[in-house]
């Protein structure tokens, strides 16, 4: 099964991707300049020309631009200058780098862009992002209808909500029903987010990131999560990580007949993380701390070590048959006691944060 991975303009990382190109289905990337239109905080600016040059060297693999913020400043929906400047960048990337499409979460933004009636729109797929949480065929068809009305191309793939990773029968049925109507559509699954199962904080967290990116408010996401959000949850009950709907590298083959591609996330963590993570999922094996492959719970790898290989061979069967009724079950706590240990406090070297 091929993978979909982040692209960040960096020569060493680009060369790394090119070495793995036969195993990569697509890359996804931020515009890195102008207003923040994707769903994460931005740490650096990159000129569109440098981004385009890096993408160009990747050849014919599919390339998707992330315009998947939960929302933008509402005044921008009617700002023709802003909308046309965004499309100018997309036009350049189509012309120079042959990008495939965009990833979106905000249907208002999709309609606003479509209202410009620029020709470039009909050349781009519009792919619903993972945070659209598509967990049924009806929801998928609803998004397809909106996309068709805008004039964007229908997507050639769809990423299903991470919760389905642990509900195999529902995942099979959803994928089957979607493909009945869209025979050539590829099904993609997110493997390594590592967040809370059906996370109660998710929608608010996404909105807080978007709100910070509009510059209406100071970014307080880390502090909030650490004090009263997912960080606090996992600090108190680290064993609940096993409920998270991640897919281990060793378990990818369990999804071969259901999905077509695996998506990896973690583009804000750094290149060392991406090198390790991509290698692990391409090779379908990882000897080390399972938490060091995760995105949302990567921070927990500094606190706890889960020996990934100690989870073999029954982990997939155990967790996909779990009722999630934790009050009557000790599976996760038993797994934690068997496979994990707490790590001593240690100040990381500067290079490990890069």
Proportion in helices: 25-40%
Mean pLDDT, to the nearest integer, reads 94
**CATH architectural grouping:** Alpha-Beta Barrel
Low-confidence sequence ranges: none
Polypeptide structure, described:
The chain has 354 residues and is of the alpha/beta class. The protein has one domain: Aldolase class I (TIM Barrel), CATH 3.20.20.70. It contains twelve helices and ten strands. An eight-stranded parallel beta sheet has the order 5-4-3-2-1-8-7-6. A two-stranded antiparallel sheet has the order 9-10. Strand 1 (2-6), helix 1 (11-19) and strand 2 form a beta-alpha-beta unit. The longest helix is centred in the first third of the chain and has 18 residues, at 80-97. The protein is globular, with a radius of gyration of 20 Å.
